[in-house]
Amino acid sequence: MLECGDTFLAGDTNNVDFHLGIVITPPIEGEVVTVCVTTKRKRSETLVVLQAGDHPFVVHDSVVAYSYSTIRLVDDIEAAFLTGAAKKREPVASAILQRVQAGLLDSDRTPNGVCHYYKDVMGTTGS
Length: 127
What we know:
This protein is of the alpha+beta class. Helix content is 27%, strand content 28%. It is built from three helices and six strands; from the N terminus they run βββββαβαα. It has helices at residues 74-83, 94-106, 112-122; strands at 7-10, 19-23, 31-39, 49-50, 62-73, 86-89. It has a six-stranded antiparallel β-sheet. A hairpin with a 7-residue loop joins strand 2 (19-23) and strand 3. The chain is globular and about 35 Å long. The protein starts with 6 loop residues before the first strand and ends in a 5-residue tail after the last helix. 26% of the residues are buried.
């Protein structure tokens, strides 16, 4: 079962470029909020930057791309593990998880529905 802080690699089946997904909520009624970590580029949102060593998959400056955050079914992610479309990786450290969670509400790129769901699940107020 997926837990808050778990990570996985997933990508487009037509694309060998896999991205790190981070589960940032506990599973509630079979759903979780996930965010995507991508390579830091010129126009990247730099609210949360991860550096080499912050997670075993991160080998160069990367960012949490909040525009790709989504509400996902736990069953869909676990089915992707079984088919090989996704690969489970090491959980993020608690301090990293807290930074990523705080950024979700601070980012102006987080989809509104994800923000509202996150606030409901986590009992958070703000932005």
